[in-house]
Design goal:
Layout lengths: L5 E4 L10 H9 L2 E2 L10 H14 L4 E6 L1 H12 L6 E7 L7 H6 L14 E6 L8 H11 L2 E4 L16 H12 L16
Parallel strand pairs: 1-2, 1-3, 3-4, 4-5, 5-6
Helix pairs in contact: 2-3
Length: 194
């Protein structure tokens, strides 16, 4: 698979230079989905941007989301008519945007879409994430049809968690990249060649 079609979806305030998403992007040539505003994220704006980037991919994409990026994937998947253009998603540390303290920081993001994804996905949840309990993360994973991995007590699974390039999650990403998926039907309606 073309590494450019592995889409990095950071959360609120973006992922800095020591974040595992940034390390993966730098090492493998993945594509960061840049948002209009990292400081004042609007669900509709972020979802529209993801739609544009997925549509620009020439083959099915793999999504690599952290924090608010996970809720972005759920929001996009619950409304897009182009979900067939994604073959897998790795979601780390989804925040509970329905919790009062998180909703105050991210007012346009509740409720959490609880629609099953039509693609393979895995949720990594920390046992001591300050923005989401492990139980709530498991509820998200169950609703989305995702497998759920207990990442242990590593906070919000970000740069402060000292995960470096996070080999455990990277192995799961490699598995998602190897998944087979149907050919994308071109938007102009011609039939793809086998």
């Amino acid at each position: 698979m073309n590494p450019a079609h592995v889409l990095i979806l950071p959360g609120w305030k973006n992922s800095g230079p020591d974040h595992w998403q940034t390390l993966w992007e730098a090492a493998d040539g993945y594509t960061r989905v840049e948002q209009h505003s990292w400081l004042h994220p609007l669900r509709g704006d972020w979802t529209a941007r993801l739609e544009d980037v997925v549509l620009a991919c020439e083959e099915p994409a793999v999504l690599v989301a952290h924090s608010l990026g996970c809720i972005l994937v759920a929001a996009w998947a619950s409304h897009s008519r182009n979900i067939h253009r994604v073959k897998g998603a790795l979601l780390a540390a989804p925040p509970d945007v329905e919790r009062d303290d998180v909703r105050d920081m991210l007012p346009s993001w509740a409720p959490v879409p609880m629609t099953r994804f039509p693609f393979e996905s895995v949720v990594f949840a920390s046992s001591d994430d300050p923005f989401c309990t492990a139980q709530r993360a498991r509820q998200f994973a169950s609703a989305w049809g995702s497998s759920c991995v207990d990442a242990g007590p590593h906070g919000h699974l970000n740069a402060e968690s000292a995960l470096a390039d996070w080999p455990e999650a990277y192995l799961r990403l490699l598995q998602l990249k190897e998944l087979t998926s149907p050919a994308i039907i071109p938007s102009h309606g011609t039939t793809p060649t086998p």
